[in-house]
Amino acid sequence: MRDVLERAGGASVYADLRLALVERSSATGPRQRIPIDLYRMLVEKDDTPNIVLQNGDVFTLPIVEDKIFILGEVKAPGPQDFRPDLTPRSTSRSPGALRTARGWSTRWSRSATAKPT
């Protein structure tokens, strides 16, 4: 596993190292999903997750999708892409503003979720 990752140029800064997986076909049964904790292997230097890949294995390394969740009395509550260059106030006043009939009333929560590639 480590060799393949190094040959591919390493993991992206947006990779979710804890949610990698290998899908392995089996001649006798259903496709097997093997979770791989690359954080443990690459950061903590523990080679336990360093499995030997077999012909036909499919390796998936999802990316982290950084979102903010807008809640409250807004026109369109829900997730928005996080932009570190904007404050919560400037995000809500950007094009497609989320202003309510009563004014600016929002609550902010930030969460990182994995998105398969």
Descriptive overview:
The longest helix has 6 residues, at 2-7. The two termini are 18 Å apart. Strands 2-1-3 form a three-stranded antiparallel beta sheet, with no helix packed on it. It has a three-stranded antiparallel beta sheet with strand order 5-4-6, with no helix packed on it. By secondary structure, it is an alpha+beta fold. It contains three helices and six strands. It folds into two domains: 2-61, no CATH class; 64-115, no CATH class. Helix content is 14%, strand content 30%.
Q: What is the number of helices?
A: 3
How many structural domains? 2
**Which oligomerization state do the chains in this entry correspond to?**
single chain
Shape, please?
elongated
Structural class computed from helices and strand pairing = alpha+beta
Rg calc: 20 Å
Spatial ordering of strands, largest sheet: 2-1-3
Q: Could you give a short account of the major beta sheet? A: 3 strands, antiparallel
Provide mean pLDDT, rounded.
Answer: 77
Return residue spans where pLDDT drops below 50 for at least 5 consecutive residues: none
